[in-house]
Amino acid sequence: MDFDFSFFLFVATIVTGVIWGGYLLFLKSQERVFDEANEPLAVEYARSFFPVVLIVLLLRSFLAEPFRIPSASMMPTLLIGDFILVNKFTYGIRLPVINTKIVEMNEPARGDIVVFRYPKDPTVDYIKRVIGLPGDKITYDDKKLTVNGQAVSYKSFGFYQGIGQGVDMTGAEQLLENLTGVEHNILIRHGVSSAEGSYVVPEGQYFVMGDNRDNSNDGRYWGFVPEENLVGKAFFIWMSWDWQDKGVGLSRIGTVLK
Hints:
elongated, Umud Fragment, subunit A, alpha+beta, 4-stranded antiparallel sheet, 2 domains, single chain, 8-stranded antiparallel sheet
C-alpha cells in the first residue's frame, strides 16, 4: 500500500466520519437531541470537514485528479508549471488506496497521454505518451520510431523557442509525429544521444515515451508500465504557472490535450 495523498485523504474521511457518526449514535442512544451549540470541539471539526474530504476523495478517486507538471519531459505538449486534469475512470474504476479495479472500461490507445505510478517507485507519479500496446514491437533508431514494422512519419516545424523554465530546449527541432494516425508535436536535439533499441511489449503492459525525446526518463531506460500502475488519461490544462516567464500562462489555460 502506498502512503500518498489519497491514503491520508481516505484516513481523514474515515476519522471525521467515525467521530461525527459516533457522536450522533451516542446522542440517539441517550435519547438526546443534537444541539450544535453544545457539541464537543472535536465533533464540530469532524462535522465541518467530513463532507468536504468525502467529496474531494470521491472526485479524485473516480472522476478527475489534478497534477502539476514538474519537468520538461513532455515538451512541447506540456510545459513545466502546467496544471492538468487526469480522467480517473476512462481506463476503469479503481478503489482508492488499494487501487483494485472494480469496473472495466476502456483500454489505453496508442498516443494517449497517461499518468501512471513509476514501476521502480510506485509512490512517484509519471506522465508520458503511450507508444506501444500489448504485443507491439517498437523500434527507436536514429530518433525515429517504427511500430510493428511501420515507419512513423514526421514533419519538421523548424527550431523550437523555449520560454521560462523550458528555455534550455531552445534550438531543438520541433516535429509533428504521426503515430499511426495520432498526430502530436515532439522535440529532438540533434547531436544529443539517447537510448535506442527494439522493444516487444508484454501482455498487460505498455511502452511509453516522453514527447521531449532526448530529455525523458521513459520506457527506453526502465521497461514497461503494468496495467495496474495506470492512474488515468491526461485531458486538460486548467492552469499554467511559470515563475521564470510571465507567471500565469493565460494562453495555455483551457488547452485540450492530444
